[in-house]
Amino acid sequence: MFPDFVDWAADRIPLVDPPAMAASYRFADTAWVELAAAVRARPGTVEAYAIGESHRGEPIWAFDVSDPGTVPEREVLVFAGIHALEWISTEVALDVLHEWIALPPPGVRLTVVPILNPDGRRRVEGDLVVGANTYRRGNQGNVDLNRDFDVNREAVAVWKAVIPARYGTSAAALSQPESRALDSLANERRFDRAASLHAFGGYLYHPWSGRWARPPDYLDLHRLGREMETAQAGHAYRTRQLSRWGFFFRAHGTEIDHLYGKYGTSAWLIELTRSGLQPGKRDGMRAFFRWYNPERSTAHRQRGVAGVRALALAP
User: How far apart are CA 50 and CA 21, in angstroms?
Assistant: First the structure.
C-alpha cells in the first residue's frame, strides 16, 4: 500500500542552497513540495498516485490532470527522468504539469510521471552536493531502463557484429521495477499518445527504434512530428524515426517501441536541447551533468513544453 502523496511530500526537505551546477534545476524534494501544494489547491483537477516503486522502495509518482467539467476523449502520457543525469527532462515534465493544473484543456486527460528513475536521480543529487563528477545513466541496479522493454529487443541488423555494444539490451524484458511500473500503467490506461523526455540532441523521435522498416502509422506519426516542430517555432527539433538516426543505428528494447507495438500508443522520444556543453569554459566539456542540462534552462524548457503541448492537443 502506497502512502498518500501529500502526506508523503510533507516529510520531504527541500535543499536550501543547491550547488551552482544545478542552480536552474529543481531537486526532487523541491519538486514534490511544489506539487503537493498544487494537489491541495486543485483537488478536482489533479490527482496524485504511485504507479509502483523503485529498487530502493521509493514511490514512483504519477499525476492525472483534466478539466473537471468535461469528459476526457484523449489520454496522453508524459514521463521523464529515465536517465539519471537528464534533469532537463524532469523540468519540462514539471512545467507541463503545472501549466495544465492551472488551466487544463478540455477533453484531454494528461498523466505525468516526472521521475521514473528516482534512485538514479537521488544518486546524482548526492554527487552534485559533494561535487563529484560521476557519469550515471541507469537505476540503482545500473540497468538502462531505456533498453528494458519487450518489443524489438532482438538485434537483426548486420551491424550488430561490428558494433555489438550499440545493440545491447537489459538481461530480460521488464526486468526492473521501474519499467514494470510504466508497463502496468500503460496496460491499464491504453494511452493515445505518449512522450518520453530525454536529453540531448534536439530530435522528435518516433518508432521504430529497433527496426529499419517504417511503422504502419508512419504518415500520421510524421504529421504529428510536424505539428510539434511548428509549435516550437525557432530552433525547432527535427522529426525522425529513431532507427534511422544513422544507417548503422538501432535502439532495442526501448519504451517507445514497447508503447507503440504493444499498446498502439503514438509514442515519442523527445531529445531535449542540443546539449549544455560549454567548450569555451574551463572544464566545460568534462562536467557530465552539463552535457545534458544547459546552464540556462528557460528557453530549452519552453521549447520542450511547446512540443509536448502540441503532441497532446493536435488533431
Answer: 30
Residue type (1 letter), 233: A
Cβ proximity of 51 and 185 under 8 Å: yes
For residue range 205-220, what is the model confidence (pLDDT) as tens digits? Answer: 999 999 999 999 999 9
Rounded Cα distance, 43 and 271, in Å: 32
Nearest to 98 by CA among 44, 146, 147, 31: 31
CA 34, distance to chain mean position in Å, is: 19
Give the number of other Cβ atoms within 10 Å of residue 284's Cβ.
13
The span from the CA of 281 to the CA of 284, in Å, is 5
Secondary structure E strands in 57-182: 59-65, 74-79, 108-113
The β-bridge relationship of strands 108-113 and 46-53 is unpaired
CATH of the domain at 183: 3.40.630.10
Question: Domain range for residue 168?
Answer: 5-313
Which grid coordinates are listed for 15?
Answer: 535543499
Measure Cα distances from 174 to 115, 164, 184 in Å. 18, 21, 10
C-alpha–C-alpha distance, residues 27 and 308, integer Å: 22
Cα 302 vs. chain centroid, distance in angstroms? 15
Edge-to-edge order in the sheet of strand 46-53: 46-53, 59-65, 108-113, 74-79, 193-199, 266-272, 203-206, 238-241
Nearest to 243 by CA among 129, 139, 123, 157: 157
Task: State the pLDDT confidence band at 37, using cuts at 50, 70 and 90.
Answer: very high
pTM: 0.96
What would the pLDDT profile of 150-165 be if each residue is shown by its tens digit? 999 988 765 555 555 6
Task: Name the domain count of the chain.
Answer: 1
Facing residues of 46 across strands? 65
